[in-house]
């Protein structure tokens, strides 16, 4: 009889252990809202790019920000942008993104699909653009964008 009482007390712990081991069921998740037109407009234009500064590290920049070969960002339709990046061979590959707003960050979701980016506005009128690593923005390897004239 004593074992039945022990089993009843252990049952919640066994269930909790199983949920942790096999994974908890998906619960509600925050879904980023679409960026409004004013927020999207902030990113439009011609941008010089360079590695972002990292606290605790000396920033070594080979060429610095260069407006002779800028990254160009345009908005072909409401809610989306196209980012074109110059390559050494003269080509300018383009990627189309839907821009979202999530707290102080702006996730860029590629259209139709692919790895996304996350932008964060800076006080000086520029922004950082980071890739994703394991679902999180990799700010340590972000690219700083400075507006060209």
Count of individual helical segments: 2
Q: What is the helix fraction of residues, given as a range?
A: 10-25%
Largest β sheet strand count, sense and barrel closure: 8 strands, antiparallel, barrel
CATH topology: Lipocalin
User: What would you report as the Rg, rounded to the nearest angstrom?
Assistant: 23 Å
Order of helices and strands: HEHEEEEEEEEE
Rounded mean pLDDT is 82
Q: Give the count of structural domains.
A: 1
Range of strand content? 35-45%
Give the low-pLDDT segments.
Answer: 18-27
Structural class: alpha+beta
What is the CATH architecture assignment? Beta Barrel
Number of E-type strands? 10
> For this structure, what is the CATH class?
Mainly Beta
Strand order of the largest sheet: 2-3-4-5-6-7-8-10
Q: Name the shape in a single word.
A: elongated
How far apart are the first and last residues' alpha carbons, in Å? 83 Å
Structural account:
This protein is of the alpha+beta class. Helices cover 18% and strands 36% of the residues. The chain has helices at residues 2-22, 37-42, and strands at 33-34, 45-51, 71-77, 80-84, 94-101, 105-110, 117-121, 127-133, 136-137, 143-147. Strands 2-3-4-5-6-7-8-10 form an eight-stranded antiparallel barrel. Strand 3 (71-77) and strand 4 (80-84) form a beta hairpin. It is elongated and about 80 Å long.
Short description:
The protein has 149 residues and is an alpha+beta fold. 18% of the residues lie in helices and 36% in strands. The chain contains 2 helices and 10 strands, in the order αβαβββββββββ.
């Amino acid at each position: 009889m004593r074992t039945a009482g022990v089993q009843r007390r252990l049952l919640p712990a066994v269930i909790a252990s199983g949920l942790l081991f096999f994974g908890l069921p998906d619960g509600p998740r925050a879904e980023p809202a679409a960026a409004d037109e004013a927020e999207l407009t902030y990113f439009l234009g011609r941008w010089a790019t360079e590695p972002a500064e990292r606290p605790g590290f000396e920033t070594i920049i080979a060429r610095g920000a260069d407006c002779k070969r800028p990254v160009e960002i345009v908005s072909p339709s409401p809610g989306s942008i196209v980012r074109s990046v110059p390559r050494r061979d003269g080509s300018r590959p383009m990627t189309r993104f839907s821009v979202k707003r999530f707290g102080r960050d702006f996730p860029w979701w590629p259209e139709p699909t692919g790895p996304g980016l996350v932008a964060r506005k800076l006080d000086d009128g520029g922004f950082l653009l980071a890739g994703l690593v394991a679902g999180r923005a990799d700010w340590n390897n972000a690219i700083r964008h400075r507006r060209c004239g």
